[in-house]
Structure formats: C-alpha cells, structure tokens
UniProtKB/TrEMBL annotation:
Compartments, record wording: Secreted
Residue ranges of every copy of the Cystatin fetuin-A-type domain listed in the record: 27-133, 144-255
InterPro entries, A to Z: Cystatin_dom, Cystatin_Fetuin_A, Cystatin_sf, Kininogen_Fetuin_HRG, Prot_inh_fetuin_CS
Keyword 4Fe-4S: no
One example GO MF annotation: cysteine-type endopeptidase inhibitor activity
Protein name in UniProt: Alpha-2-HS-glycoprotein
Entry-linked SUPFAM superfamilies: Cystatin/monellin
C-alpha cells in the first residue's frame, strides 16, 4: 500500500514538471546609441513633428531606455524613452528639421519627454503608441546661464496680447498683399529694462487685400492655406510705444482631394505633405528602415490662448492613442518579470552594465 502511495506521488510530481509552461516574455536590450535604436528614435521624432499642430518642432536630444520585444508571428516592437528639445522652427515652417537650430538655454529652452512603441517589420518602423509631455527649463537653471535673460511669459498675459495685436496691425499696414489673421501666439518674454515685450506668433493669409480691409471679421482664410511666422518687440516709451516686427510668409499649402463614400472627391482641412520638404537619405551607418517624411501640415483652426501657459505642451499633441499589445502577443503586465537577452554580451560573473541612457546631443535640462 505504501508502495502504491509513493508511486502515485511520484507520478503527480512527474506530471507537474511535464506540463508545458507558456512562453515567457523575452526582450533584448540594445545600446541606446546603437544605430538601430537611433533609427527608431528618429522615426519617433518625425512622428512628433508630424502630429504637433502648435508651437515648435522638436529634435532628438537623448535616448534614455530601449527594449526590443519579439512579436509573433514576425517583427519586433521597440519600446523607447526619449528626450527632445524645442527648436526655433515653428511647426508650420517647411524648413527641414535638420536645418532647424535648437533653442539655446539663454532663450529659456523647452524639453520634451516621450514614451514610444514602434513596430519594426520588413525593415520599416510603424508607431504603435506615443505619449509625450514637455516643460520649460527651470528659472534657476536659466539664471545660471544668463542672469539677465527674460523668462517665458504666459501667452494670455495682457501685455503679450497687446504686443501681438500691435505687431500684427503694423505688419498688415505695411503689406501690399493679403490681409493676415492671427493663428496662435507661440512664445513671449517680458523685459523690465527697457520695458518691452517680445513675442512670436503664427499668422494665416485671408481672401482680403490688406490695404482695403474695413471689417476683418469678413475676411476668410484662403482655400490653399498660406501661413507665416512673425517675431516682434514692443518697447514702451514716454508718451507712446514702438513696434518692430518681421514676418516670414511660407509657401501655400494645397489641399489634397479626399475620396468620399459616394466615389466623389472633396477638399477639406486634411493632412497634406509639405511640398518644401525632401525625403532625407538614410545614413550608410544606419540599417535600412522607413523614414517618415516631414513635416506634415494641417489646416489648423484659430484657438483661444491657453490659460496661464507659457508654451504648448506636447501632451496635447496626440489624440486617440490606444494601448498596444506586447511583442509576444500578450498584454504588457507590470507584475511579470521578463527575461532579458543581451546580444553580443558574454555571460560572466559580475554586474551587467546597461549601455543606457545614451549620449546627450545638445544639452541636458
């Protein structure tokens, strides 16, 4: 009887060990400065600039983390954390990102913090998930670099609003062409001595002639959108004020006919590729992968000034982002402990050094 009981226990133990266990989540860690990682990060940055409708373009500053998950039946999912920096190019500016200068710290720089998941399949990256936020540098850090430099001012400050109105009025008064309307106030700074307000703002051309406008409310934006970007300084003086303004008007943005359910084509404020941008050539040091053409410009509506905000936060750039399944086909679970595979790293005693975060391309905020 004891032999029979012992046999049953052994059989149960053997049966438990023979039951196949579900596939464990396995990911590999790449160097944050690996060419493949950088290629994924550049696609992520293109995605940001193609979806931000207000404010300024961002550029890659640092790759913080990267995990690469296998995805069934094929492909891999790159899970990235990246830092970006605001450039001096407005999102409506067709200048390629490579030619846009990073805004220096003395001008009160803005940093972006983003999480991305990208699917790489057949050598092409597709963004599956994107989440970003951004914030200006701290006042203390700005003061360390430039003690007298002005900080960012709220975009709805009464002095800012007045400076923009005065600058746009002065620009239209000098114009021999279309009357331009305000699209957004992009940036502002207040200087105490001499008392002055510096502003940057975006404008759009209307169907009215500037010299003939009597009622701006009757002026409509052109069907083929034409945007401009202005910089102005309003200086307060005894008995009045001086306004200095310069505006750059970009080429028109033709609307692309969109197919309708009834087979006809309609034109609307849809996403259009910027004709002034060429597709960048892939670097020979980077693996073959799809590059997102950018920037993409949409016909953005006029909007009220953000309350007490000094910049347009990237967290409002992405809409309708859905959760993403893991590379192995299972949902990401915080409680699971995945296995880590590090390619080209020999197994040896001692601590494993993770090659992240990567290099800082500009400066750290």
């Amino acid at each position: 009887m004891k032999s029979l009981a012992l046999f049953l226990c052994l059989a149960q133990l053997w049966g438990c060990h023979s039951v196949p266990v579900g596939p464990a989540l396995v990911y590999r860690e790449l160097d944050c400065d690996d060419p493949e990682t950088e290629q994924a990060a550049l696609v992520a940055v293109d995605y940001i600039n193609n979806h931000v409708l207000r404010g300024y373009k961002h550029t890659l500053n640092q790759i913080d983390k990267v995990k690469v998950w296998p995805r069934r039946p094929m492909g891999e999912v790159f899970e990235l954390e990246i830092d970006t920096l605001e450039t001096t190019c407005h999102v409506l500016d067709p200048t390629p990102l490579a030619n846009c200068s990073v805004r220096p710290q003395m001008q009160h720089a803005v940093e972006g913090d983003c999480d991305f998941r990208l699917l790489k399949q057949d050598g092409q990256f597709t963004v599956l998930f994107a989440k970003c936020d951004s914030s200006p540098d701290s006042a203390e850090d700005v003061r360390k670099v430039c003690p007298q430099c002005p900080l960012l001012a709220p975009l709805n400050d009464t002095r800012v609003v007045h400076a923009v109105d005065a600058a746009l009025t002065a620009f239209n008064a000098q114009s021999n062409g279309s009357y331009f309307r305000l699209v957004e106030v992009s940036r502002a700074q207040l200087t105490p001595l001499p008392p002055s307000t510096y502003v940057e703002f975006a404008v759009a051309a209307t169907d009215c002639v500037a010299a003939e406008v009597t009622d701006p409310a009757k002026c409509n934006l052109l069907a083929e959108k034409q945007y401009g970007f202005c910089k102005a300084t309003l200086t307060e003086k005894v008995g009045g004020e001086d306004v200095a303004v310069t505006c750059t008007v970009f080429q028109t943005q033709p609307l692309i006919p969109q197919p309708q359910p009834d087979g006809t084509e309609a034109v609307g404020p849809t996403v259009v590729a910027d004709p002034g941008v060429t597709v960048p050539e892939a670097s020979p040091d980077l693996p073959a992968a799809a590059l997102v053409v950018g920037p993409v410009v949409v016909a953005i509506p006029e909007a009220p000034l953000p309350e007490h905000r000094a910049h347009y936060d990237l967290r409002h750039a992405f809409m309708g982002v859905a959760s993403v399944e893991s590379a192995s086909g299972e949902a990401f679970h915080v409680g699971k402990v995945p296995k880590v595979v590090q390619p080209d790293v020999a197994v040896a005693a001692g601590p494993v050094v993770h090659p992240c975060p990567g290099r800082i391309r500009h400066f750290k905020i």
